[in-house]
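lol ok so funny story. i was supposed to be doing the assay writeup but got distracted and ended up predicting the structure for this chain instead. priorities right. anyway since i did it might as well share w the group, maybe its usefull for someone
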Amino acid sequence: MTRAAAVAALRGGNAGFVAGISWVTPGFLGDAVRSFGLDFGFVPADPRDAENRIAKLHALDAAAIWAVPGVLGRAAESIGWMEVLRLSAAEPGALAVTLAEALHDALDLTRTGIAAGADCVLVADDLAGANGALVSPDFALDALLPCYRSIAAEVIGDRVAAFHSDGDVRVLMPSLAAAGFSAVHVAGMGGAGVTASVRAARAAGLVAIGGVVAAGIGDDPVSAGDFAGRLACEEGVLVCDDGGLVTPEDLAAYGIAVDAARDAFTQRGAGSR
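and the output, tada:
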């Protein structure tokens, strides 16, 4: 696999087995990509070191996914999560200025990553969690999707726009595809939720990134990887963790899971989907 093939896979091309890693300590990213034979890595958007972090992945022939915090999370940093959630339900118009300011910052970071050579811009905004949606679908569609569309519009040429949220956001997937996103990172759910979200993404015309549930990965990394490998073979998933790798032990277990996913993909045969 090469960086170019990984980008093609993010766009929906059938490139075979593709695997990467999401948010890990920056010092571990290059080692993980090299040691586990990964094709892409998430780079947290940081204008102070953007060019260097992206260049390190490119030197390994891996695609750099520039992860930009989304507007809902930025608004919450500004006025607090409880206030954001209250206003989104009771007085959504009162969030207009805060969201506009958040969008301005997100666009600046997006442009920084693109200028530094990022292959993909991923908008990371948690609209849901393990216990369900944080905001209503109407608020997400009316207030947040226009912001996401503006960010995706910056991602032109050979680059790709992707979206991340924890939890079940299946209801939004068709709108994300229409807004210009090519892929979605599935996270913050157990196996059944992952499978349902992956299938919904595919039905909406989005590439699903994920499949490896990090919670408890150290207990049985082979099973975690086998599950992801089956999704890769049957549903075209680009294998990745869900953002829950925390400790060095988690990271080591993830390497075992990737090997198991690769084996499962090979044994089942590409093209079964």
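Residues 64 and 118 are 5 Å apart (CA to CA). The first helix runs from residue 3 to 10.
back to the writeup now i swear
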